[in-house]
């Protein structure tokens, strides 16, 4: 595309008010610059084939910026200068997807693949088994909404039905076109779905930068991509090198554009629109070709620029995709071949002991950094003393480390044949590495514990826990800030956070006015919105997780009632055993904890659970009953669980004798067999719904 000739008027822009005809020339020039910059962006970032030098690009960019400053009325909302972002966003809003964003069914071997394919063949016998195959990217799924070619929304997958709006952050990703490339016409509506990933090489750079800034390192590129995309600070998001790769479509209204008829055609169209697509995507004819493709991706896994965890096969014909449709969880026309965890060998240099929020000491192996599937691993958890003994891990050993998805790397085994003769068994320290106090290990327990309530490590971890999603879920208060606040002695308990003022926050290194104000605002919002269950779970009482906290909140309704409850009163609740009850009572008896709770109360952070009629009704057939959901239901499982919880049920995750009901959907798997063998009552979805109805009528 050629730029319109530079109008003379432009050379005189600063001189005087431009005449109307000059206006239109300026406007044209600005439009042309916007389009041209977008094209070069794409050539550079997506196609890896720049046509002009960086300097020429910068000059064009500077010209547009200057014109926009002078003629703000002509600034396009889709200008690439907007990619530079503007400060902090107030918070992430959620938005419903027009059509649900499904996950994929996983297969782990070729037998499972054949079963999956047989079901497809039975459902659409006349459709040729032709597939579009590509690698499965391990990033963050994102939907981009284009109306008449312009990017109008970007929504994360979220729970599939609704996700977080990250339009401003998405605009900072240079492989996301702000408007579709080409001359049009464009579809009236096109939802482009794909994955936001961070290339392995960029991941290493991003972590090096975080290390230099004293920030917590990202565990893997997936977390890095998710963390960057969801962060509220658009400026910070801009510094993170993220890439978007398009692989499927949501809703589309093609208007005057020819609709796409195959997945391959759709991928090609995406490319002409300016998107990058997953590397090495191709058509495969028949099941055998799919298998060879999957094997070639598996063999070349290390060589991909981004982290991948499998391969995906999708029926190529879009009409057949539509005919096959979806189960409650995933499409019937696409499947993911999942690869197992990746392993590598390295040397264990040291064993460090870390102190958790409950004072539990965890040994951590420090390793000579090694790439495990493209991610550099330099430490791995050893869980506890028994684990170190069982694996006989010694300093100096050569070990096999493994990473599976998001899981923290672990040591699989020691290579005994490589053990240096000088290696001696490791001995657990008898003092806490953070405070120097003696540590103890109770009989029958695997963990060593530091009991010192003023241990700085325990304090830090418990405050981080309070702020995290397991507690009040306070957005924008990173652990590096908590670390600074604890180190300075200003914050000793989570309650102290709520007394911080903007003014004193400004005294901390790297704290700006905007950040301080957001910080205080986030705490205020958290204070106002805290629920009893979240507050309780945030306190980090030993054995009281999120589920137990919900149960306690539903039963006791107020903090005062919980604080005063005796072991007998607590163990009345199904789901609260003597160990948990004891731990709750002893937490509230502790002097330091009482002081902290008084502070919370005086700050007005003393939540009450709204009384829920259904949950209150102890005659309800669901009240306090343990439910487990398995298999595919006609509604998302999370929704069914929420309905049950609202009616007073307790949701558990494994089958045991204590389970009251197993609700089994389609393809229930081994949980159903186990429940039957234990004589547990099994409900189908209809029976479960009937039970809920029955309760409502009461
Ligand atoms: S196609 C109807 N292709 O993996 C769903 N998905 O475990 C069509 N994913 O969140 C999706 N790489 O978003 C497709 N090459 C690829 C993919 C891919 C990663 C994501 C997908 C989903 C998750 C499922």
Topology at a glance:
Blueprint lengths: L7 H4 L8 H26 L8 H17 L23 E3 L8 E3 L2 H14 L6 E8 L2 E8 L2 E7 L5 E3 L2 H5 L17 E9 L2 H13 L8 H9 L4 H6 L3 E11 L9 H10 L9 E4 H14 L8 E8 L2 H7 L9 E5 L3 E14 L4 E13 L2 E7 L3 H7 L6 E6 L6 E5 L24 E3 L6 E3 L5 H12 L11 H9 L6 H4 L4 H4 L7 H17 L2 H7 L7 H11 L2 H6 L2 H5 L6 H12 L1 H12 L10 H4 L9 E5 L6 H10 L3 E2 L9 E4 L5 H8 L3 E3 L1 H13 L1
Parallel strand pairs: 2-11, 19-20, 19-21, 21-22
Antiparallel strand pairs: 1-6, 3-9, 3-10, 4-5, 4-7, 7-8, 10-11, 12-13, 12-15, 13-14, 13-18, 15-16, 17-18
Helix pairs in contact: 2-3, 13-14, 18-19
The structure holds 2-(butylsulfanyl)adenosine (IVH).
Could you name the key traits of this structure?
5-stranded mixed beta sheet; single chain; 7-stranded antiparallel beta sheet; binds 2-(butylsulfanyl)adenosine; 698 residues; alpha+beta; disordered N terminus
Description:
The chain has 698 residues and is of the alpha+beta class. The chain is built from 27 helices and 22 strands. The strands form five sheets. Strands 12, 13, 14, 15, 16, 17 and 18 form a seven-stranded antiparallel sheet that branches. The protein has a five-stranded mixed sheet with strand order 2-11-10-3-9. A four-stranded antiparallel sheet has the order 5-4-7-8. 2-(butylsulfanyl)adenosine binds next to strand 3, strand 8, strand 10 and strand 11.
Number of helical regions? 27
Structure ligands: 2-(butylsulfanyl)adenosine
Point out poorly predicted stretches: 1-18, 84-90
- Report the portion of residues in β strands: 15-25%
Rounded to the nearest angstrom, the radius of gyration is 29 Å
Shape summary: globular
Termini separation (Å)?
71 Å
């Amino acid at each position: 595309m050629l730029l319109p000739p530079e109008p003379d008027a432009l050379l005189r822009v600063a001189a005087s008010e431009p005449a109307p005809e000059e206006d239109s020339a300026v406007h044209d020039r600005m439009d042309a610059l916007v389009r041209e910059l977008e094209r070069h962006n794409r050539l550079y970032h997506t196609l890896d084939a720049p046509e002009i030098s960086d300097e020429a690009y910068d000059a064009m960019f500077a010209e547009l910026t200057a014109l926009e400053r002078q003629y703000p009325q002509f600034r396009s909302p889709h200008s690439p200068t907007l990619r530079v972002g503007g400060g902090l966003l107030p918070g992430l809003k959620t938005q419903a997807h027009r059509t649900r964003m499904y996950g994929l069914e996983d297969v782990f071997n070729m037998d499972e693949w054949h079963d999956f394919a047989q079901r497809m063949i039975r459902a659409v016998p006349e459709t040729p088994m032709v597939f579009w195959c590509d690698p499965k990217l391990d990033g963050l799924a994102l939907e981009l909404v284009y109306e008449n070619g312009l990017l109008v929304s970007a929504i994360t997958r979220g729970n599939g039905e609704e996700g977080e709006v990250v339009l401003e952050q998405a605009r900072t990703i240079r492989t996301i076109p702000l408007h579709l490339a080409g001359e049009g016409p464009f579809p009236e509506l096109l939802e482009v779905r794909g994955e936001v990933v961070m290339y392995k090489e960029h991941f290493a750079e991003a972590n090096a930068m975080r290390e230099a800034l004293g920030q917590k390192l990202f565990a893997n590129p997936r977390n890095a991509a998710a963390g960057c995309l969801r962060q509220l600070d658009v400026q910070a998001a801009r510094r993170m090198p993220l890439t978007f790769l398009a692989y499927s479509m949501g809703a589309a209204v093609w208007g005057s554009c020819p609709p796409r008829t195959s997945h391959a055609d759709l991928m090609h169209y995406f490319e002409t629109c300016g998107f990058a697509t997953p590397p090495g995507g191709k058509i495969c004819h028949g099941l055998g070709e799919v298998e060879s493709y999957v094997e070639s991706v598996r063999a070349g896994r290390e060589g991909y620029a981004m982290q991948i965890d499998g391969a995906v096969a999708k029926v190529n014909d879009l009409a057949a995709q539509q005919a096959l449709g979806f189960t409650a969880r995933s499409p019937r026309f696409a499947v993911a071949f999942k690869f197992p965890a990746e392993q590598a060998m390295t040397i264990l240099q040291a064993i460090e002991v870390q102190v958790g929020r409950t004072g539990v000491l965890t040994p951590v192996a420090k390793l000579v950094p090694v790439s495990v599937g493209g991610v550099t691993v330099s430490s791995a958890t050893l869980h506890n003393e028994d684990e170190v003994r069982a694996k006989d891990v010694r300093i100096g050993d050569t070990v096999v480390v493994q990473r599976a998805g998001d899981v923290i790397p672990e040591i699989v085994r020691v290579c005994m044949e490589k053990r240096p003769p000088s290696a001696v068994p490791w001995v657990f320290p008898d003092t806490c590495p953070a405070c120097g106090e003696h540590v103890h290990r109770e009989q029958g327990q695997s963990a060593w514990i530091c009991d010192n309530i003023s241990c700085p490590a325990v304090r830090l971890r418990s405050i981080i826990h309070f702020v995290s999603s397991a507690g009040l879920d306070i957005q924008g208060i990173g652990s590096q800030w908590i670390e600074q606040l604890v180190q300075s002695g200003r914050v000793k308990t989570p309650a102290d956070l709520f007394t911080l003022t903007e003014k004193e926050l400004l005294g901390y290194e790297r704290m700006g006015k905007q950040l301080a104000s957001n910080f205080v605002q986030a705490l205020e919002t958290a204070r106002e919105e805290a629920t009893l269950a979240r507050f309780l779970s945030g306190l980090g009482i030993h054995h009281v997780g999120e589920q137990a906290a919900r149960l306690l909140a539903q039963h006791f309704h107020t903090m005062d009632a919980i604080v005063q409850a005796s072991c007998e009163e607590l163990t009345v609740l199904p789901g609260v055993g003597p160990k948990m009850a004891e731990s709750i009572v002893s937490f509230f008896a502790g002097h330091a904890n009482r002081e902290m709770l008084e502070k919370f109360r005086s700050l007005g952070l003393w939540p009450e659970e709204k009384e829920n009629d259904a949950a209150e009704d102890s005659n309800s057939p669901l009240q306090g009953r343990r439910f487990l959901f398995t298999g595919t239901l006609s509604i998302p499982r999370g929704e069914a669980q929420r309905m049950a919880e609202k009616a007073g049920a307790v949701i558990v995750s494994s089958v045991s004798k204590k389970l009251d009901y197993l609700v089994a959907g389609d393809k229930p798997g081994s949980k159903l067999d186990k429940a039957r063998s234990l004589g547990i009552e099994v409900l189908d979805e209809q029976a479960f719904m009937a039970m809920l109805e029955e309760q409502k009528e009461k």
